C-alpha cells in the first residue's frame, strides 16, 4: 500500500515561491518533490496555468522550468485531451545530480545547512507536540506504518515526507514555508544517507519515537530526537563528501 501525504503537506509543496520569477526555482521545487516521493511515478502535475498560479510566477517561467525537468528525464509531456506533464522517474537517475551538488558545497557550508535545517525541523517537531490533536497523532502513526519498506527510495520518500508532516502539524504557515524552502535546498542531499542500511534502520526507529513523543505532547523529547537524527544524517553526509573527494564512492562498500 502506497502511503499518501496528508493534503496539507501536498499543498505546501506547491506554495508560492519566495523569490518568484526564476524557472530554476520551479524546476528545483518539483525535482526535489519527485526525489522525496511527494510526487510519484505516473502522477500528472497540475496544469501550467495552475502551477503558475500556485507558485506565483509567470506562465513562461513555469514552461521554462518544465523544460529543465524534461531535459533531466524527470517528466514527460503528453499532448491531447488526456495530456499534461507526468512524473516518469524517482530515484536512481538523481544520484549523479545530487553527488555533483554535494561536490559543489564546502564542508563548512554543509555543516551550516545542517544546523539551519535541524533548527527549523526541531521547532516544527516541538510545536507539533503542542498543537497536534489525537487524530493528527494517530494519522501520523498510521502514515509511518503505511510508509514502511520500499528500500532506499521508499526510505527517502518517508523521511522527507515525515519532516514535511511535522512542519504541517506545527500549524505555523511561516514554519511550513521556511521548511519547504530549506528542504528543497538541502533535504535531498541530507537524505542521501538513507542509501546506508544502518542509517535507514535508525531513521525508521527514531521516526517512530518522534511520533510517540508528539502523541504524548512531549515537545522537548520530540525536539531532542529530531536534533539527534539530523546530526546522524549530517555526520554521514560530511563523511561521504570527504570520501568521494578522495576518489572513493558515495557509499562505503564496507
Structural write-up:
The chain has 254 residues and is mainly alpha-helical. It folds into two domains: 7-87, Arc Repressor Mutant, subunit A (Orthogonal Bundle), CATH 1.10.10.10; 99-245, GntR ligand-binding domain-like (Four Helix Bundle (Hemerythrin (Met), subunit A), Up-down Bundle), CATH 1.20.120. 68% of the residues lie in helices and 3% in strands. The protein has helices at residues 7-13, 23-35, 48-55, 59-71, 94-103, 107-131, 134-147, 151-169, 173-190, 197-215, 219-245; strands at 75-78, 84-87. It has a two-stranded antiparallel ribbon with strand order 1-2. A hairpin with a 5-residue loop joins strand 1 (75-78) and strand 2. Helix 2 crosses helix 4 (59-71) and helix 2 packs across helix 9. The chain is globular. It starts with 6 loop residues before the first helix and ends in a 9-residue tail after the last helix. The relative contact order is 0.14. Residues 20-90 form the HTH gntR-type domain. GO terms for molecular function: DNA binding; DNA-binding transcription factor activity. This is FadR family transcriptional regulator. Keywords: DNA-binding, Transcription, Transcription regulation.
Amino acid at each position: 500500500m502506497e502511503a499518501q501525504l496528508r493534503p496539507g503537506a501536498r499543498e505546501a509543496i506547491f506554495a508560492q515561491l519566495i523569490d518568484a520569477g526564476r524557472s530554476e526555482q520551479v524546476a528545483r521545487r518539483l525535482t526535489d518533490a519527485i526525489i522525496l516521493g511527494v510526487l510519484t511515478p505516473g502522477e500528472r502535475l497540475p496544469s501550467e496555468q495552475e502551477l503558475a498560479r500556485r507558485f506565483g510566477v509567470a506562465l513562461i517561467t513555469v514552461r521554462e522550468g518544465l523544460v529543465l525537468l524534461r531535459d533531466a528525464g524527470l517528466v514527460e509531456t503528453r499532448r491531447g485531451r488526456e495530456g499534461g506533464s507526468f512524473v516518469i522517474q524517482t530515484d536512481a537517475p538523481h544520484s549523479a545530480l545530487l553527488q555533483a551538488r554535494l561536490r559543489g558545497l564546502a564542508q563548512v557550508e554543509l555543516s551550516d545547512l545542517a544546523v539551519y535545517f535541524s533548527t527549523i525541523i526541531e521547532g516544527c517537531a516541538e510545536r507539533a507536540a503542542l498543537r497536534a490533536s489525537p487524530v493528527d497523532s494517530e494519522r501520523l502513526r498510521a502514515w509511518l506504518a503505511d510508509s514502511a519498506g520500499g528500500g532506499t527510495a521508499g526510505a527517502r520518500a518517508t523521511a522527507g515526507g515525515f519532516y514535511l508532516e511535522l512542519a504541517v502539524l506545527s500549524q505555523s504557515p511561516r514554519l511550513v514555508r521556511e521548511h519547504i524552502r530549506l528542504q528543497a535546498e538541502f533535504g535531498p542531499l541530507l537524505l542521501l544517507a538513507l542509501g546506508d542500511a544502518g542509517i535507514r534502520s535508525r531513521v525508521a526507529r527514531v521516526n517512530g519515537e518522534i511520533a510517540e513523543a508528539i502523541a504524548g505532547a512531549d515537545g522537548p523529547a520530540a525536539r531532542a530526537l529530531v536534533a539527534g537524527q539530523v546530526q546522524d544524517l549530517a555526520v554521514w553526509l560530511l563523511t561521504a563528501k570527504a570520501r568521494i573527494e578522495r576518489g572513493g564512492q558515495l557509499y562505503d562498500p564496507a
